[in-house]
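Most newcomers find our protein records easier to grasp once they have seen one. A learned vocabulary of local backbone shapes supplies the integers on the structure line. An example says more than a description, so a record of this kind follows:
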Amino acid sequence: MQQLVFATNNAHKLEEVAAKLHGKIKLLSLDDIGCTDDIPETGTTFRDNASIKSNYVYSRYHLNCFGDDSGLEIEALNGEPGVYSARYAGKHGDHAANIQKVLEKLGAATNRKARFRTVISLIWEGEEHFFEGTVEGTIRNALSGTEGFGYDPIFQPNGYDITFAQMSLAQKNSISHRAIAVDKLFTFIDTSMTPPRGK
């Protein structure tokens, strides 16, 4: 079975991606390949950071791999928190503080339009490819739900009356930014692994 390294140890991300896997691919985490390094995210765009992760893994392990970077872009905050979504309040991964900062900065603003964006950098057979997914929505005034992670409790996707954090994994995986990008990723891999007709 073909192996593919996801350049993360984020259990939530791994779960979301693994739920969309086909039988041809075995998904590996950084832990699975013995990589304990804290890969620096020094880029100024999602594309930069995704590429840094995948190239870091490929240069050291020479395995097919992909990295992603995702974030929340809020119209009234000029696209913030954007590429700094995971460390918006200062400490990386402090979801509660990040959410609090967003709600405080938005205050009573009536424009609460936002989008989640994911960019994936895949290195497949030594060549890099990019895939992107976005989902539009609004920022709630207060937290709702306990599922998911990050900003999910305050993000309500368009067309729904619940937040990402009120959805099951299957429901979120049918519409989320990461799911859209991952679908594009696996479509590409499926095509790459399928022999041309007549062969």
Notes: DSSP finds five helices and six strands in the chain. The CA atoms of residues 7 and 30 lie 6 Å apart. The beta strands are 2-6, 25-28, 65-74, 113-124, 127-139, 155-157. The longest strand covers residues 127-139.
